[in-house]
Sequence to fold (312 residues):
Amino acid sequence: MAKYSSANVAFFLHSGHDLLGVSTDLSDTVEGLTEDATVLGATWQTPLPTGTKRAELTQAGYFDNAADSSHHVFNEQQGTSRVVSLGYEGNTLGKNATCYAGAYASKYSRIVSKNQLHRAAATYQITGASDECVIIAPLAARTTDGNTQTTPWDNAVLSTNGAGYLQVNAITLSGRPSVVIRLRHSDDNSTYADLATFAAVSAIGAERVAITGTINRYVAIAWAWGGSGGTPSVTAAVMLNRA
Amino acid sequence: MTGRDYFATVQLSDRDGELLAGVGESCELVPESSLPWLIEQRLIRPFADFTPIPDPEPGSPEDGPQEEG
Fold:
């Protein structure tokens, strides 16, 4: 077990846009909903779980109208579904990250106070999933076709079902049409098989793919560019949730 | 057991990323030690399971519309 601090927060990606540099406080909450089932004659209130969960994410920080920063991401975007990833332990293979799919920044506030920098705050309602993930590929630039199979994440055991998350923070196509990023897995760290394939990427963005079936103990990524020539580069992170 | 008897249902590569078998291709390059887990997870299937669809008999309904004349 280890403790972490604000210095360990490595990324806060909103469908590829990293808001870490303008964020000061983050709070992610998952709540199991209950119904009050107290009956007559009971001495103590009896909340019973309904089986429904609710996830909520709130953030506070600085107002910034730079392209791809907080104002760009939140203003007039209340109806836009985002994939959000929070790397709160660091940007290293095997560190934990929380990922959300179907995250709507339903409330965006600009706060202007005397003698202070302008602030921005957002509250997200999560309509999709809130997944506890492991970083399979840290946020880093990747150029020519390659893979991380020589440095996979070893989970020690296999598992069943889950989800993969891809966050693309920057991309330079350099004449290429797109890049395809895949999750790959192996039982013996010798032969690797496709586990899940993300949609071809040609712009900043993010995706969650559901995984059904076995996820073997070793997991890595591979990426392949379409076309030829140029010096393409994609800055991406990939996370994996094991159900 | 040999990989030659199996075809891949997903792309397979070695640790260095060298392609061992594409989808539908023979697994003859796959190490024998990897075959059991690939078979168990149905990531490779025996060619014996693959039943080719026969060409329709000429004039049969499956052969499509016939020209008048």
Q: What stands out?
A: Residues 70-74 of chain A form the longest helix (5 residues).
